[in-house]
Amino acid sequence: MNNKIKVARLSIYSNTTLIVLKLIVGLISGSVSIISEAIHSTMDLLAAIIAFFSVRASDKPADEDHPYGHGKYENVSGVTEALLIFIAAIWIIVESIKKLLHPEPVESIGIGFIVMFVSAFVNHLVSKKLYTVAKQEDSIALEADALHLKADVFTSLGVGGGLLLIWATKLNFLDPVVAILVAIFILKEAYHLLISAFSPLLDVKLSEGEIKIITEQINKHKAIYCDYHNLRTRKSGKTKYVDLHLVFPENMTVKVAHTLCDVIENDIETLLKNTEILIHLESCTKTCIECNLYDNSHCIVHDKSNH
């Protein structure tokens, strides 16, 4: 069992335990903010289950029907998780408004306070572990799951603080107010997750930082080739795809040109893990002194203005 699957399973176990605790305390106390947290954790559990199955599917090797692999399972997972969060947040807001219109006293505040802070502590540990593995494996599904739990840390602390305030002030209307604030925070989380997960499904280019790394590695060897163009990038799951056209002097041998392509590919892959690169070789079609003087061992092409 690989590290991604192990940590995804850990998330399932922790979320299940916290849901049971929150539901029990929420029903005993009658606190809509605690119940909203139980719902939030339920969404986290669904997200963890989706992440678990998506990371298993995304690790399958490429096959005849999926020549580019199965990486986008993780992106589909992230989009699904974001939509689930939206639904949960809207439900919390609706129930909180009902509670504001028909306020009820909150009972067993002490137990609720303890459960919220235990929940925050557990989710902090699990989310930290998820983030670590997500960065190591470049997994959008695990990153989404970690984001859920990180949000749960803040919302649990918010609910716990709200319960403490209710105990001190006896103002029970603060309970649904805190729940609405929790829901707004969740909506913000869902929006950022949706953008992050959905973009690769549309083959959006890699980040500017990643493209800068790629162009820097290509430009390191500009004394050998004439030009490059049609640089395209995209991402599927954890795998980054790069393709470009590289123009060489007309009398350069294929062997030398191919060797340079290997060097460029290795340079990029060393700095950007999980990157697949395709370079199309082109011969310079312009007539210029530099190309005619190329001796296959040292390129003297410095001025690209003639190409």
Features:
66% helix; 9 helices; disordered C terminus; mainly alpha; Alpha-lytic protease prodomain-like; 2 domains
Protein model, in words:
The protein is mainly alpha-helical. It folds into two domains: 3-202, Cation efflux protein transmembrane domain (Alpha-lytic protease prodomain-like); 208-306, Cation efflux protein, cytoplasmic domain (Alpha-Beta Plaits), CATH 3.30.70. It is built from nine helices and three strands. A three-stranded mixed beta sheet has the order 1-2-3. The protein starts with a helix and ends in a 14-residue tail after the last helix. Residues 293-307 have low confidence and may be disordered.
DSSP, total strands: 3
**What is the CA–CA distance across the termini?**
53 Å
What is the structural class? mainly alpha
Order of helices and strands: HHHHHHHEEHEH
Shape: elongated
- Shape-level CATH architecture of the largest domain: Up-down Bundle
The CATH homologous superfamily of the largest domain is termed Cation efflux protein transmembrane domain
> What is the CATH domain class of the largest domain?
Mainly Alpha
Uncertain runs: 293-307
Widest β-sheet, arrangement of strands: 1-2-3
Q: What value does the Rg take, in angstroms?
A: 27 Å
Largest sheet: 3 strands, mixed
Number of helices: 9
Question: Which SSEs are present, and which pair or pack?
Answer:
Elements: H1 3-29, H2 32-58, H3 72-101, H4 109-137, H5 140-169, H6 174-198, H7 208-219, E1 227-236, E2 239-248, H8 254-271, E3 275-283, H9 289-293
Parallel strand pairs: 2-3
Antiparallel strand pairs: 1-2
